[in-house]
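Exam revision sheet. Question 4 asks you to relate a sequence to its structure. Input first:
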Amino acid sequence: MNDVRYVLGISGGKDSTALAIYLKMKYPRLDIEYYFCDTGKELNETYKLIDNLEVFLGKKITKLNAAPGSPKDPFDHFHQLYGGYLPSSVARWCTKKLKLEPFEDFVGNDPVVSFVAIRGDEDREAYVSRKPNIQSIFPFRYNIWSEDVIRLVFNNSGLEKLIKIYEGLEFTDKNKRDAAMEIVRRPLSVAYPQNRKLNELLRLDAKLFNKAVFNILKNSSYPLAKIDEFQVLDNDEIITIDDVFRILKESGVGIPAYYEKIEFELDGQKGYFSRSRSGCYFCFFQQKIEWIWLYERHPDLFQKAMQYEKDGYTWMQGERLEEIIKPERIRQIKEEQLRKLNRRSTGNSGYLVDIIQETEGEGCAACFI
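Answer key, structure tokens:
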């Protein structure tokens, strides 16, 4: 019996959608529970993507409501409780109340492995729950383990245990075994930090490293201590942004429609823009060109976003939405977009990849992955 629940949060964005597809195709025996934290303020394109994904998975995605029983949708419910105070980069009550707390209520006190869609080409960390019954795993990265697990594995106080575990692993190559044992036996120090030791062992054999970590966790309080096997240990792939788009296309689920390039012309110059992330249509992490995208593609939603700006509260610091849509201001924003496009190298992967990489790290992974 598997006493551990496997869960995967779907944001409506490219990465979490691709991870659900990837795990379904590579590890079809994994019984994964999928969930979506519905703020009530998502784009229709997001809901369409979730519908497509449910068809591919052949499984329902549980929609979590942060304010069950309320006559208002989750965002408006908490917006009222917070006295009309809008969320911001320094006060992300929306992430806490609409995403993280519903997720932790959903899993309760059950031992849970949470699959997280941080890609192998990203230099950022995701939200990792502080609840001891929730363990995060990152299948898209070469290192599938969270930072707290790596600290446990390489702690010098447990060095003899790690050495013993590596001695019991089955190497197909004696030279590789000798190299691994040399790395493992070397304690951490200022001259030999944790990341260096980690990367050396991963490059040598990621699958064997994963088996060693799994053995160490056997005597821990982590959820993986409760199971006898974990299929994802054989992961040694690095999934990049280009891989994500390939997975979405080849599966038939498709790329989220809000990534579609919208062309514009200014003084004879042609440019284009799109939305770069999932999340609420009025997300305060949007670039100004994305607000123009919302204004031109979904004027009704833009008007609704404007209605939240009152009593000194605005979505952007120092500028109201009613100001950003003045013709001269739209022109300025599109001129800046043209300058950005001209600065980009023609050798890059293209506009879509560039704009996403430019904005990653600006926001909360609990919302946008």
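Marking note for examiners. The first strand starts at residue 5 and ends at 9.
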